[in-house]
Protein backbone atom coordinates (compact mmCIF):
# COMPACT_ATOMS: atom_id res chain seq x y z
CA UNK A 1 0.00 0.00 0.00
CA UNK A 2 1.05 3.63 -0.38
CA UNK A 3 1.36 5.22 3.05
CA UNK A 4 0.61 8.88 2.43
CA UNK A 5 -0.01 11.46 5.16
CA UNK A 6 -3.68 10.61 5.36
CA UNK A 7 -2.73 6.97 5.91
CA UNK A 8 -0.58 7.47 9.00
CA UNK A 9 -3.24 9.42 10.79
CA UNK A 10 -6.26 7.75 9.24
CA UNK A 11 -9.51 9.60 9.97
CA UNK A 12 -11.76 8.08 12.57
CA UNK A 13 -14.41 7.02 10.07
CA UNK A 14 -11.81 5.01 8.20
CA UNK A 15 -10.64 3.32 11.37
CA UNK A 16 -14.18 2.44 12.44
CA UNK A 17 -14.91 0.96 9.03
CA UNK A 18 -11.90 -1.32 8.97
CA UNK A 19 -12.23 -2.38 12.58
CA UNK A 20 -15.92 -3.15 12.49
CA UNK A 21 -15.74 -5.12 9.25
CA UNK A 22 -12.78 -7.18 10.44
CA UNK A 23 -14.20 -7.86 13.87
CA UNK A 24 -17.47 -9.03 12.40
CA UNK A 25 -15.92 -11.40 9.91
CA UNK A 26 -13.27 -12.86 12.20
CA UNK A 27 -15.18 -12.74 15.45
CA UNK A 28 -12.30 -10.94 17.17
CA UNK A 29 -12.27 -7.79 19.23
CA UNK A 30 -9.47 -5.28 19.10
CA UNK A 31 -7.86 -6.11 22.41
CA UNK A 32 -4.11 -6.18 21.61
CA UNK A 33 -3.71 -8.91 24.21
CA UNK A 34 -5.91 -11.30 22.27
CA UNK A 35 -3.00 -12.45 20.11
CA UNK A 36 -2.40 -16.03 19.12
CA UNK A 37 -4.55 -17.47 21.89
CA UNK A 38 -7.64 -15.87 20.34
CA UNK A 39 -6.55 -17.10 16.94
CA UNK A 40 -6.21 -20.64 18.23
CA UNK A 41 -9.69 -20.40 19.78
CA UNK A 42 -11.11 -19.68 16.34
CA UNK A 43 -9.18 -22.54 14.77
CA UNK A 44 -9.52 -25.46 17.19
CA UNK A 45 -8.58 -28.12 14.63
CA UNK A 46 -5.67 -26.22 13.13
CA UNK A 47 -2.74 -24.45 14.72
CA UNK A 48 -0.51 -21.44 14.22
CA UNK A 49 3.26 -21.82 14.23
CA UNK A 50 5.72 -18.93 14.01
CA UNK A 51 9.13 -19.73 12.55
CA UNK A 52 11.93 -17.18 12.89
CA UNK A 53 14.85 -16.66 10.50
CA UNK A 54 13.97 -19.36 8.01
CA UNK A 55 16.75 -19.65 5.45
CA UNK A 56 15.98 -19.39 1.78
CA UNK A 57 18.04 -19.42 -1.39
CA UNK A 58 21.24 -18.14 0.28
CA UNK A 59 22.40 -18.10 3.90
CA UNK A 60 21.83 -14.38 4.26
CA UNK A 61 18.30 -14.53 2.83
CA UNK A 62 16.19 -15.10 5.94
CA UNK A 63 12.46 -14.51 6.51
CA UNK A 64 10.14 -15.06 9.43
CA UNK A 65 7.23 -17.30 8.44
CA UNK A 66 3.84 -17.97 10.02
CA UNK A 67 2.08 -21.27 9.32
CA UNK A 68 -1.59 -22.07 9.81
CA UNK A 69 -2.08 -25.80 9.57
CA UNK A 70 -5.39 -27.00 8.14
CA UNK A 71 -7.92 -28.59 10.40
CA UNK A 72 -7.76 -32.37 10.55
CA UNK A 73 -11.17 -32.94 8.96
CA UNK A 74 -10.27 -30.64 6.08
CA UNK A 75 -7.16 -32.62 5.18
CA UNK A 76 -9.16 -35.83 5.26
CA UNK A 77 -11.66 -34.48 2.72
CA UNK A 78 -9.14 -32.56 0.58
CA UNK A 79 -7.70 -34.11 -2.56
CA UNK A 80 -4.22 -33.81 -1.07
CA UNK A 81 -2.72 -33.00 2.31
CA UNK A 82 0.20 -31.37 0.52
CA UNK A 83 -1.70 -28.33 -0.75
CA UNK A 84 -0.27 -24.94 0.19
CA UNK A 85 -0.97 -21.21 0.03
CA UNK A 86 1.74 -18.56 0.43
CA UNK A 87 0.76 -14.98 1.31
CA UNK A 88 2.91 -11.84 1.06
CA UNK A 89 1.54 -9.01 3.25
CA UNK A 90 1.67 -5.26 2.69
CA UNK A 91 2.99 -2.28 4.58
CA UNK A 92 2.33 -1.99 8.34
CA UNK A 93 1.24 -5.65 8.60
CA UNK A 94 3.20 -7.63 11.15
CA UNK A 95 2.76 -10.18 13.89
CA UNK A 96 0.00 -9.27 16.34
CA UNK A 97 2.37 -8.59 19.21
CA UNK A 98 4.51 -6.19 17.20
CA UNK A 99 1.53 -4.29 15.78
CA UNK A 100 -0.02 -3.85 19.21
CA UNK A 101 2.89 -1.67 20.45
CA UNK A 102 3.27 0.48 17.32
CA UNK A 103 1.01 3.57 17.31
CA UNK A 104 0.77 3.64 13.51
CA UNK A 105 0.09 -0.09 13.28
CA UNK A 106 -2.30 -0.72 16.16
CA UNK A 107 -5.36 0.76 14.38
CA UNK A 108 -4.95 -1.97 11.75
CA UNK A 109 -4.32 -4.87 14.12
CA UNK A 110 -7.37 -6.67 12.73
CA UNK A 111 -5.12 -7.39 9.75
CA UNK A 112 -2.14 -8.75 11.67
CA UNK A 113 -0.47 -11.79 10.18
CA UNK A 114 -2.22 -14.12 12.63
CA UNK A 115 -5.66 -12.80 11.75
CA UNK A 116 -5.02 -12.80 8.02
CA UNK A 117 -3.89 -16.41 8.37
CA UNK A 118 -7.30 -17.26 9.81
CA UNK A 119 -9.06 -15.45 6.97
CA UNK A 120 -7.03 -17.34 4.40
CA UNK A 121 -7.66 -20.61 6.21
CA UNK A 122 -11.38 -20.08 5.64
CA UNK A 123 -10.82 -18.95 2.05
CA UNK A 124 -8.62 -21.96 1.23
CA UNK A 125 -9.79 -24.87 3.41
CA UNK A 126 -7.63 -27.96 3.54
CA UNK A 127 -4.42 -26.10 2.66
CA UNK A 128 -1.39 -25.18 4.69
CA UNK A 129 -1.31 -21.38 4.81
CA UNK A 130 2.11 -19.71 4.95
CA UNK A 131 2.60 -15.98 5.54
CA UNK A 132 6.03 -14.60 4.70
CA UNK A 133 7.06 -11.51 6.64
CA UNK A 134 9.36 -9.16 4.69
CA UNK A 135 12.91 -9.28 5.94
CA UNK A 136 12.79 -5.59 6.86
CA UNK A 137 10.08 -3.11 7.90
CA UNK A 138 11.58 0.37 7.59
CA UNK A 139 10.29 2.60 10.42
CA UNK A 140 8.06 -0.35 11.41
CA UNK A 141 5.84 0.53 8.44
CA UNK A 142 7.41 0.04 5.03
CA UNK A 143 7.72 -3.58 3.92
CA UNK A 144 10.99 -4.28 2.11
CA UNK A 145 11.11 -7.64 0.34
CA UNK A 146 14.82 -7.46 -0.37
CA UNK A 147 15.17 -11.25 -0.34
CA UNK A 148 12.80 -11.45 -3.31
CA UNK A 149 13.40 -8.25 -5.26
CA UNK A 150 15.86 -5.36 -5.27
CA UNK A 151 14.22 -2.37 -3.58
CA UNK A 152 14.97 0.92 -1.83
CA UNK A 153 14.55 1.60 1.88
CA UNK A 154 10.81 2.22 1.45
CA UNK A 155 10.27 -0.98 -0.52
CA UNK A 156 9.92 0.47 -4.03
CA UNK A 157 11.16 -2.29 -6.34
CA UNK A 158 13.66 -2.42 -9.16
CA UNK A 159 12.76 -5.50 -11.16
CA UNK A 160 15.21 -7.70 -13.03
CA UNK A 161 15.04 -11.05 -14.85
CA UNK A 162 17.36 -12.98 -12.53
CA UNK A 163 17.14 -11.84 -8.89
CA UNK A 164 16.20 -15.30 -7.61
CA UNK A 165 12.68 -14.75 -6.25
CA UNK A 166 11.42 -18.17 -7.34
CA UNK A 167 14.54 -19.91 -6.09
CA UNK A 168 14.26 -18.12 -2.73
CA UNK A 169 10.60 -19.07 -2.34
CA UNK A 170 11.32 -22.68 -3.24
CA UNK A 171 14.15 -22.93 -0.69
CA UNK A 172 12.31 -20.92 1.98
CA UNK A 173 9.22 -23.08 1.74
CA UNK A 174 11.30 -26.26 1.82
CA UNK A 175 13.20 -25.22 4.96
CA UNK A 176 10.00 -23.99 6.64
CA UNK A 177 8.29 -27.31 5.93
CA UNK A 178 11.20 -29.18 7.49
CA UNK A 179 11.12 -27.03 10.64
CA UNK A 180 7.35 -27.41 10.88
CA UNK A 181 7.69 -31.20 10.54
CA UNK A 182 5.45 -31.40 7.49
CA UNK A 183 5.13 -35.08 6.60
CA UNK A 184 6.38 -34.69 3.01
CA UNK A 185 8.54 -31.56 2.75
CA UNK A 186 10.02 -30.23 -0.46
CA UNK A 187 13.42 -31.80 -1.17
CA UNK A 188 16.40 -29.44 -0.75
CA UNK A 189 17.81 -27.51 -3.68
CA UNK A 190 21.24 -28.20 -5.13
CA UNK A 191 23.73 -31.02 -4.87
CA UNK A 192 22.13 -33.49 -7.27
CA UNK A 193 22.62 -33.97 -10.99
CA UNK A 194 18.97 -34.93 -11.29
CA UNK A 195 16.63 -32.91 -9.02
CA UNK A 196 14.59 -34.96 -6.58
CA UNK A 197 10.88 -35.13 -7.47
CA UNK A 198 8.41 -33.07 -5.49
CA UNK A 199 6.07 -34.81 -3.04
CA UNK A 200 3.01 -36.42 -4.59
CA UNK A 201 0.05 -34.07 -4.75
CA UNK A 202 2.07 -30.93 -4.02
CA UNK A 203 0.24 -27.78 -5.17
CA UNK A 204 0.74 -24.10 -4.52
CA UNK A 205 -1.33 -20.90 -4.63
CA UNK A 206 0.37 -17.50 -4.31
CA UNK A 207 -1.45 -14.49 -2.85
CA UNK A 208 -0.05 -11.00 -2.35
CA UNK A 209 -1.60 -7.85 -0.91
CA UNK A 210 -0.57 -4.25 -1.56
CA UNK A 211 3.23 -3.92 -1.22
CA UNK A 212 3.50 -7.72 -1.22
CA UNK A 213 2.54 -7.68 -4.90
CA UNK A 214 6.09 -6.58 -5.76
CA UNK A 215 7.10 -10.19 -5.07
CA UNK A 216 4.62 -11.58 -7.59
CA UNK A 217 5.70 -8.95 -10.11
CA UNK A 218 9.33 -9.98 -9.71
CA UNK A 219 8.35 -13.61 -10.19
CA UNK A 220 6.63 -12.73 -13.46
CA UNK A 221 9.81 -11.02 -14.67
CA UNK A 222 11.77 -14.19 -13.80
CA UNK A 223 9.43 -16.70 -15.42
CA UNK A 224 11.32 -16.96 -18.71
CA UNK A 225 14.56 -18.10 -17.09
CA UNK A 226 12.99 -20.02 -14.19
CA UNK A 227 10.83 -22.19 -16.45
CA UNK A 228 14.01 -23.60 -18.02
CA UNK A 229 15.79 -24.20 -14.68
CA UNK A 230 15.79 -27.97 -13.95
CA UNK A 231 15.48 -27.31 -10.21
CA UNK A 232 12.49 -24.99 -10.61
CA UNK A 233 10.56 -26.41 -13.56
CA UNK A 234 8.47 -28.91 -11.59
CA UNK A 235 7.93 -26.43 -8.75
CA UNK A 236 6.55 -23.82 -11.17
CA UNK A 237 4.25 -26.37 -12.75
CA UNK A 238 2.64 -26.91 -9.34
CA UNK A 239 1.59 -23.25 -9.04
CA UNK A 240 -2.10 -23.19 -9.94
CA UNK A 241 -3.13 -19.62 -9.09
CA UNK A 242 -1.63 -16.20 -8.45
CA UNK A 243 -3.68 -13.48 -6.72
CA UNK A 244 -2.84 -9.78 -6.89
CA UNK A 245 -4.79 -7.91 -4.18
CA UNK A 246 -4.74 -4.12 -4.70
CA UNK A 247 -1.04 -3.84 -5.50
CA UNK A 248 0.78 -0.64 -4.57
CA UNK A 249 4.18 0.71 -3.58
CA UNK A 250 5.82 4.16 -3.11
CA UNK A 251 7.57 4.22 -6.49
CA UNK A 252 6.37 6.07 -9.58
CA UNK A 253 5.90 3.05 -11.82
CA UNK A 254 6.03 -0.74 -12.12
CA UNK A 255 3.08 -1.17 -9.77
CA UNK A 256 1.73 -3.75 -12.22
CA UNK A 257 3.70 -5.73 -14.80
CA UNK A 258 3.22 -4.19 -18.24
CA UNK A 259 6.10 -5.79 -20.17
CA UNK A 260 4.42 -7.82 -22.90
CA UNK A 261 7.15 -10.45 -23.10
CA UNK A 262 6.99 -11.10 -19.36
CA UNK A 263 3.19 -11.27 -19.48
CA UNK A 264 3.38 -13.67 -22.42
CA UNK A 265 5.37 -16.04 -20.21
CA UNK A 266 2.73 -15.74 -17.50
CA UNK A 267 -0.08 -16.39 -19.98
CA UNK A 268 1.64 -19.43 -21.48
CA UNK A 269 2.39 -20.90 -18.04
CA UNK A 270 -1.27 -21.79 -17.59
CA UNK A 271 -1.40 -20.22 -14.12
CA UNK A 272 -4.80 -18.74 -13.28
CA UNK A 273 -4.35 -15.01 -12.65
CA UNK A 274 -6.67 -13.07 -10.34
CA UNK A 275 -6.55 -9.26 -10.15
CA UNK A 276 -8.58 -7.74 -7.30
CA UNK A 277 -8.42 -3.98 -6.84
CA UNK A 278 -10.15 -1.10 -5.04
CA UNK A 279 -10.54 2.60 -5.87
CA UNK A 280 -7.93 3.38 -3.22
CA UNK A 281 -5.20 2.19 -5.57
CA UNK A 282 -6.52 2.28 -9.14
CA UNK A 283 -8.71 5.41 -9.00
CA UNK A 284 -6.36 7.83 -7.24
CA UNK A 285 -5.80 10.85 -9.55
CA UNK A 286 -2.55 11.64 -7.71
CA UNK A 287 -1.17 8.27 -8.87
CA UNK A 288 -2.95 7.83 -12.17
CA UNK A 289 -0.26 5.46 -13.45
CA UNK A 290 -1.44 2.73 -11.07
CA UNK A 291 -4.81 2.50 -12.79
CA UNK A 292 -3.24 2.69 -16.24
CA UNK A 293 -0.80 -0.09 -15.43
CA UNK A 294 -3.55 -2.26 -13.96
CA UNK A 295 -5.65 -1.85 -17.11
CA UNK A 296 -2.62 -2.68 -19.27
CA UNK A 297 -1.88 -5.78 -17.16
CA UNK A 298 -5.42 -7.09 -17.51
CA UNK A 299 -5.91 -6.18 -21.17
CA UNK A 300 -2.57 -7.63 -22.27
CA UNK A 301 -3.19 -10.92 -20.47
CA UNK A 302 -6.68 -11.14 -21.96
CA UNK A 303 -5.26 -10.58 -25.44
CA UNK A 304 -2.65 -13.26 -24.81
CA UNK A 305 -5.33 -15.76 -23.86
CA UNK A 306 -4.40 -16.01 -20.19
CA UNK A 307 -6.73 -17.47 -17.60
CA UNK A 308 -7.53 -14.21 -15.84
CA UNK A 309 -10.31 -12.94 -13.61
CA UNK A 310 -10.66 -9.33 -12.49
CA UNK A 311 -12.80 -7.43 -10.02
CA UNK A 312 -13.05 -3.86 -8.77
CA UNK A 313 -14.26 -4.05 -5.18
CA UNK A 314 -16.17 -1.26 -3.38
CA UNK A 315 -16.54 0.70 -6.61
CA UNK A 316 -19.56 2.60 -5.29
CA UNK A 317 -17.87 3.58 -2.02
CA UNK A 318 -15.38 6.38 -1.34
CA UNK A 319 -11.75 5.46 -1.88
CA UNK A 320 -10.47 4.63 1.59
CA UNK A 321 -7.60 2.74 3.13
CA UNK A 322 -10.18 0.75 5.14
CA UNK A 323 -11.54 -0.76 1.94
CA UNK A 324 -7.99 -1.29 0.72
CA UNK A 325 -7.46 -3.64 3.68
CA UNK A 326 -10.91 -5.21 3.35
CA UNK A 327 -10.05 -6.66 -0.04
CA UNK A 328 -8.18 -9.35 1.93
CA UNK A 329 -11.54 -10.48 3.28
CA UNK A 330 -13.58 -9.99 0.12
CA UNK A 331 -11.52 -11.48 -2.69
Automatic annotation (TrEMBL):
What protein is this chain from?
Uncharacterized protein
Q: Which InterPro entries does the UniProt entry name for this protein? A: C2orf69_mit
Q: One Gene Ontology cellular component annotation? A: mitochondrion
| PANTHER family referenced in this protein's UniProt entry, alphabetically | MITOCHONDRIAL PROTEIN C2ORF69, UPF0565 PROTEIN C2ORF69
Q: Name one Pfam family in it.
A: C2orf69
Amino acid sequence: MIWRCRSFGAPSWCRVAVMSSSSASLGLGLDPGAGISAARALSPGGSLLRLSDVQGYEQHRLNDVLLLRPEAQETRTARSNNAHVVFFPGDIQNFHQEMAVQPDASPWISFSLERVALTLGVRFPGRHVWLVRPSRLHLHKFSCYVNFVSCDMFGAPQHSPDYGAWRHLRALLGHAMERAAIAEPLPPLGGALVPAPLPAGFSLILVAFSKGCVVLNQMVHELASSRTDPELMEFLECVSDMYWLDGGHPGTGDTWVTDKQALAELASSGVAVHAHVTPYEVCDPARAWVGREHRCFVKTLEQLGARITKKLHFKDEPACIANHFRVIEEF
